[in-house]
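Aggregate trends can hide what the representation actually does to any particular protein. The sequence in question and its C-alpha cells are set out directly beneath this paragraph.
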Amino acid sequence: MSGHPRTWFVVLPDTEAGAATAAVWGTAECRALHHPSGRPWILGHWPADEPVTVQAGPVALAVFGTSDADPQRLRRHAERVRDPRDVLALGGDLAGSFHLLATVHGTVAARGSLSGLRRLHLAEVDGVPVLSDRADVLAAAAGLAPSLDRLALRLADPLPHPVDALPLWPGVTAVPPNHAAVLAPGRPARTLAHWHPPAPRRARPEAATALGQALHRAVDTRTRDGGLIAADLSGGLDSTPLCFLAATGPAELLTVTIGSVDPHHEDAAWAQRATHHLPGRRLVLAAEDVPAMFADIDTPGPQGDEPFAWTRTRARDEAVARLLATHGARLRISGEGGDEVLQALPAYLRTVAPRHPATAARHLRGHRARLRWTLPDALSALTDPRPYPAWLARAADRLTHPDPPRTTQLLGWGITPRLPPWATARTAELVREQLRAAQGSEPLAPEHAQHQALRMVRHSAAAMRQLIDATARAGTPYSVPFLDDRVLDACLAADPATRGTPFAYKPLLTEAVAPDVPADLLRRTGKGDFSPDTHQGLARHRAELAALIDDSALARAGLVDPDALRQACLGLYPPGTSYAALDATLACEHWLRAHGASPRPASPTTVQGA
C-alpha cells in the first residue's frame, strides 16, 4: 500500500521506571519527545510536521492531529500552567480533532477528542502505566493476548455503551473520550472528567450561530495551510456546506462526486447544481470507475486495534485515496458524522414534554406518521421508566429474540442489540454475560436523546478512525469536521426540538450555513441511497465471499455457523439480515485472521462505564 506508514505514539511517565520502559519500543527506530527532565516522554511513528510542541521551564505541551494550535499560542498557555488541570482548559479553546499531551512538573496529562476519533488507551508495561492512541501497540508491548469473548461482542448490532468501548485485549483500558488521563510519579494512573454533555436548552438562533462559528473554525483549520484539498460533494446537506466553507480558505478546492449504479439516484444532480457556485476543480467518478461494494472482500485490509468497520467499501475508499493522491490532494474533507450530530432521535420528546407539552404532542404526531407507530406503542415507549442498567439487562435477555427490535425504542435509551441469525449459541452466551457484567453502568448523559446521540457519535468515530488510517496509508486521509469537539458541543447544546423535529430536515445546519450556501441548495430533504450498489457488489463478489465463509476463522472459533451465514448471504434474496450485521461479521472475520485464530477467552468481570 502506498502513502503514509501507520502512525502511533506512546506516552511515558516522568520516572526512572518510565525511562527504562522506553527500551521496549526501540527508541532508535522511533521519533521521541522528552520531558523537561530529559527522560523519554512520547515515542512513536508520526510525520515530521505532525505535533506542535513547546516547552516553558518544567512544562511541555504537544498537540497531535488537526488543530489551529500554533507555537506562540501554546507557549503563552504553557507559561501560565501550574497544574495538569490547567491544560484541559486549553483543549476547549482549540478547534480541530487532536490529542493534547502535557507534562507539568513531572506529572503527565493527556486527552483525546470528545467523539473518540482521537482516543487514548492505558496499560501497564513492565509494571509502568503507559498511554497510547492504539490499543494494539500497548498489547504488543505488554505481551497481552486478544479475547475471543470481546470479539464476540462485535457481532452484535448496535453495540451499546459501555461494552462498545471494551478493548479487545484484557489488560488494556480505554480512557473515556470526555476524560483526561493523568500519570503522576508514585501514584496509580487516574482519569479526570473534563467535559459533560451540555444541557440541551439553547434556542435555534443562538445554537445556529454557535454551530456556524464552529464549522467555520473546523474547516479553516483544515484549509489554512493551503495546498490542494479534496472535498466530497455528494449534493447532500452535510457535504455541500463543507465544500462552500472550504472554498473560502487559502487552499485550492477539488470536489469529488461518486456516482451510483441507480440511474434515478439524485446525488449527481444536486452536486451538479452546487458546482455552478463553487470554484476549483471537479472530479466525477462513475460507479464503474471505482471498485464495487465488497470488492477485495477476500483480502484483509489494515487490521489495527478494532475490526475494520468499512469492509464493504474498503477497496473503493482506498482506490479513491490513491487517485486523489495522484492529483496532489493532501486530505479529503467528508460530511461523515453529520447525521449523528445534527439530528436528535425521538427520545428528545422526553425532555421537551415537561416544558412544552403542546410542542411535544405535535412532534409525536409527526414522528408517528413518519415511522408508522401506533399511539399506544409510542406512549408506552415514551413513558418507560426503566433506568439504563435495567435497559441493559433487557438487552441481554433479548439478544436472540426472533423479532426485530421496534423503532419505538428510539423513544427510550435506544435500539436494543441483536445477534445475527448465524451467531452460535456460544456467541450469544458470551455476549449476554458481558452485557450483564455492565449493568452497573450509567448512561452517557442523563437525557435519553443525548445518550443516544453520544453513542452514535462514538460509533461513527470508531469507524472513521479506522478509515482515516487506511486512507492515509493509501495516500489521502479522510478528515471529518462534524466530529470536532466544538461542533459536537454546539449541536448537543441546541434545543432538541430544533435538531429532532420531524417537520424539517436538519434545520439547525441550514440556518447555521445560510450565509455561506445558496438557498436553493439547502432545500434538499433527504440523501442518496446506495442500496442498489450494495446489492450489485454482493452479487458480483459472491464467489470471494463464499470462499471466505468456507474457510471462516470465526466458524473455527465457534462464533458463527457457516451454513447459516452462507444461506443468509448467498441465497436467492440476500442478505438474510441487515447489511450492518454482515459488515460486522466480515470485519471480525478479517480481524481474527490477522490477530491469530485462537485468542484466549476472558471472563467478563465488572465493566466500568464512563
Notes: Confidence is low (pLDDT under 50) at residues 601-610. The CA atoms of residues 416 and 514 lie 37 Å apart. The chain has 24 helices and 17 strands. The two ends are 37 Å apart (CA to CA).
